[in-house]
């Protein structure tokens, strides 16, 4: 698993969001943006993380950030997640793991004593030129916005 690091260029991608709209990395050219990867919609940790970002969304926007959530869930599951918690940002339904693999967040994980492949909870902060300026490896789900704004 080759994870992207600070100084790398964010990969180009084009994947549908929860409403079936095509979202492309090119749409973020000239903007500061945050791509946060989470293992699965509607699970406790992912819900805590996304709700924390929602609750601090105005603060993040004030700093000029656009947000984009990504998991391998279906459009329907992402739509349900977004509507249930009223998220003001798009959630990519990356079922083919195109974005997940491009950022290098898929790989072996351990949970409750078993090992399996899955999405690592990671966040990438990208500048106006498409360059990764920060990678947050140890995401604090209940305090994630503060980590980004730090």
Automatic annotation (TrEMBL):
Enzyme class: oxidoreductase
InterPro entries: AhpC/TSA (IPR000866), Peroxiredoxin_AhpC-typ (IPR024706), Peroxiredoxin_BCP/PrxQ (IPR050924), Thioredoxin-like_sf (IPR036249), Thioredoxin_domain (IPR013766)
Domain Thioredoxin: 4-150
EC number(s) per entry: 1.11.1.24
Domain of life: Bacteria
Gene Ontology terms, MF aspect: peroxidase activity
Keywords recorded for this protein, A-Z: Antioxidant, Disulfide bond, Oxidoreductase, Peroxidase, Redox-active center
The UniProt record lists the keyword Disulfide bond: yes
Pfam family, one: AhpC-TSA
Reaction equation(s) it catalyzes: a hydroperoxide + [thioredoxin]-dithiol = an alcohol + [thioredoxin]-disulfide + H2O
PROSITE patterns per UniProt: THIOREDOXIN_2
Family matches, as NCBIfam families: PRK09437.1
Function description: Thiol-specific peroxidase that catalyzes the reduction of hydrogen peroxide and organic hydroperoxides to water and alcohols, respectively. Plays a role in cell protection against oxidative stress by detoxifying peroxides and as sensor of hydrogen peroxide-mediated signaling events.
Family affiliation: Belongs to the peroxiredoxin family. BCP/PrxQ subfamily.
Subunit structure: Monomer.
The protein's name: thioredoxin-dependent peroxiredoxin
Organism: Aequorivita vladivostokensis
Lineage: Bacteria, Pseudomonadati, Bacteroidota, Flavobacteriia, Flavobacteriales
